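alpha-glucosidase
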Amino acid sequence: LLITVVIMKSLAILSFGLLVLGASAFHIVVDEAKQDLDWWKTSVIYQIYPRSFKDSNGDGIGDLNGITSKLEHIKEAGADALWLSPIYSSPQKDFGYDISNFTDIAPEFGTLKDFDKLVTKAKSLGLKVMLDFVPNHSSHEHVWFNQSVNRVKPYDDYYIWRDAKKGPNGERRPPNNWLSVFGGSAWEWNEKRQQYFYHAFVVGQPDLNYRNPDLRKEMENVLTFWMDRGVDGFRVDAVNHMFEDPALRDEPKSSNDVPPDDYESLDHIYTRDLDDTYTVVKSWQVLLDNYVKNHKTDGKLQILEAYTSIPKSMKFYDVGANPFNFMFIASLNNGSSASDFKRTIDGWLNAIPEGKVANWVVGNHDNHRVASRYGFNNNRADQISLLSGILPGIAVVYNGDEIGMVDRPFTFAETVDPAGCQAGPQRYHIKSRDPERTPFQWDATTSAGFSNSTKTWLPVHSNYKTVNLAAQKVATKSHYKIFQALTKLKKTPTLKKGTVEVLLATEKVLAVVRRLANNPTVALLINFDNKPVTIDARTWLNIDEKKKIQISSLKSGLNAGATVDTTRLVLPGAASKPEWWESGIIYQVYPRSFKDSNGDGIGDLNGITSKLEHIRDTGAVALWLSPIYSSPQVDFGYDISNFTEIDPNYGTLADFRNLVTRAKLLGLKVLLDLVPNHSSDQHEWFKKSAKRIKPYDEYYIWRDGKVLANGTRVPPNNWISIFSGPAWTWNEERKQYYYHQFASAQPDLNYRDANLRREMDNVITFWLDQGVDGYRIDAIIHMFEDAALRDEPLSHRPGVPPTDYDYLEHPYTKDQNETYDVVARWRQIMDKHSQDHKTDKKYAIVEAGSPYPLMMRYYQVGVDPFNFMFIGTLRNSSGPSDFANAINEWMYNMPKDQSANWVVGNHDNSRVASRFGYQSNRADQMSMLAAVLPGITVIYNGDEIGMIDRPMTYEETVDPAGCNAGRERYQLKSRDPARTPFQWDNTTSAGFSTSRNTWLPVHENYKTLNLAAQKIASISHYKVFLALAKLKKTKLHHEGQLEISTDNDKVLGVVRRRPHQTPLVLLINFEEAPIKLDLRSWLHLPDSIDIYTASVKSGLKVGTTVKSAQFMIPGAAAVILAGKDLA
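Predicted structure tokens:
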């Protein structure tokens, strides 16, 4: 008996309360009169996208001779047939799907002679050859179309021509409202013929008219031509677009929220799935069957691309053809549960007519790669491949899926796919198919071994050095080796002829069982939980007690060949592979101060894009951008005049899209600073609200003033702005006060208004559509205020003036219960977007400096609260016990299974090196502590090189918090010292700008304290940080248990332990003098251990082995110790 174990690590686990655990049995019908099944019935069909498979002549475009040279790979992978995407003569407007001659080869791919050589070699290897048959349309350069334009018979009616309609002013209009799949009208005027022609796709692809018998005969001749050259079958493209309503009725509008010229804006009841299609498909099947009969060949397969409903798909079986099953592409995604998979698989198997063959499409050239759709890091691609192979019938894979290739993000400038180009720079990334079409990654040589040219038709993915076939062939375990094992298993009698059962053990475990009398049973087990699950598979699946693992997914930790006890079978979960952020570094970029690309002294998006490699090199998994939205800049971007535009100081939306694309190429996620509490007083919403224009009249918090006995008008209550002074400002136009928690130019939004809430929902969705991976949510605790406007009590803090925010306690303007409901709604929006767009889960973290019980409630609604203990609780005077208590308090209060986070610094507080003492070297200690502790490390740009605050005069101060505090108190409030430009090198303005006049002065220490200098130094803050980033990627960091202890309240010890591995230890000496430690007794360390990294001024040498029983830690030093087995 063979047990195939697949571990499903879901990005979004859905919970289902199942009461009945069902099983469905389907019997594979076998014609006993034949010795073998027809070749395709249990086959693996391998799709080749010719432009991207292998280039044989160095022009950067794949070709037929390149494919021929790699046919052995297809055979060795275990495929039975290859399907070639279009190779016909074509102007390449849609990369081969616009065909100018259906019976010739495009010169970039080769010649008919080259094709014949390919077929001959394929047959010698036992491979069938299938072609992509594109019957819906031709190219507008096809001779048929040119003859049709000229009304030459019989070609005059080969296409769909219609007269124009006249508009109210006599203008020419298309015959109806039909839209192209690629966007815009589906009708194009032809001046010569003086008629419109219909094109379901691009203008260069006019639709053929299948109501014309001469045209149908032409296409039958095309099929026969290729069968005569040895072709074994056809994948039929876009078959459900072949007929349109002859009455040309307008199509109704859909409910989709897309632009009016987008294909999805209409319901396509008159241009898709018409019954006439089945008649033509049946005639083709008769043609194929007669060819087989007359020429005594193996069967010819006709398999159809028809993204349609199951009932309409099943009708193709009725006429002898096979419809593609796109459930793994269109119906299921990385958020689908075990129940979803069972229901969807059962739905297809139950619908198939008796005696017909199922098929399971893993991926193709028109959709994101399976590893990207299902989460490359979570190893779901193996699971989908295994499912497609174990289930009965045909498995269809796309070249590159067998090695786990992933999508490559593209800029609009790089985009060549017409679907993306026509969508425009704002929406191209939604429509473009370029990301999944990049060249095959054969090895780590030039252009991934695809071509000897460095310039390829689409860029090679940057990960090719590690993700390539050659590397996976020599690896002990790899996607490729799993695929080979699967295809070998698929050829066994059990998988060819056995019954199939699809079962649920629990709501989190799916099984597919294949049985055949007198043959081994094969069981595929998939754990959807994020934790290990123990099941009694013997009872559940009716199998023997001791069985062997045949295949397991790449990162499951289970090994093929191992014998397991099926009565207590442990299926590993996803806990060992966290969400992308859970042990990562999030790098905050303050855009004004990071990098200036145009010499105006202000940092901008293009500057950030030019330095993304630096962020990648720090080991960060994501960058968080402080506000970049349109703004009058009263509070430097936190006063927003348009939530969906980029401020001109920073660039354009196109610049932002380029930044996102480049970041994704580098493996970086992008987080935006969402500022929901308030807008600018220059926002159109506020201007309309002041005029009482609906629905904007209630978008802000307006109240009448109070009138004193002497007739003086005063604000509604005593609330004070964070930036000092009353939190209410009179608006003369509306004759009311408006509330502002921050500057008077930042009026608070009213979240009790449903229209306003919808506006902000749309803002969140807008940026998610631009590729954003999540949000840092600003000032979340201020979003709601007491509806009764009760006065806040005095704080009685000494020395605080009555205009200062700290003069009052704030029970009525912070931490109101309604806040959590809004945040929960935003979590739902992000999750739905991830599910709908098949992306990784979105991350959200909120700025909430609240008491622990209130902060921890954010975890319950699906977001993380920032942990500001290094900023708000601990300081330079804190001792080891203070740190231990603070860390333990957070870990104790945090809900189980959530991720901690440790904020080292940000733009609102003094830099960590200034807060904890630059000279005493405490900045390294904080970075080291934040990195060794479990969870997320959040750093502020410049912390990685130990930048410090620059003192400012009152005249230099620009921060409104400082300016409003006045000359005597500005130093207490101003945030300018922490916001000075990043120090890249020792050139003009520290390399931040070519201008000497920067928006804030550069710190004068930039000549010695800069990134370039630290990169070449043997010891530096930057080098320490790189070591920490590497440490955070280890299994010991991800899985190790945490222990915190102190030694005589002088030394803090942080230990991470994992079974069968040397512990990882951080030691921080809070004394100025050296201290001798017995680490063997105190922390139970082995006799000797190595120095992994140490603070810059410690004098300790990295790599040195030390004795645990007598370790001397220098004064004010921090050191990390680890074993040689650190991994």
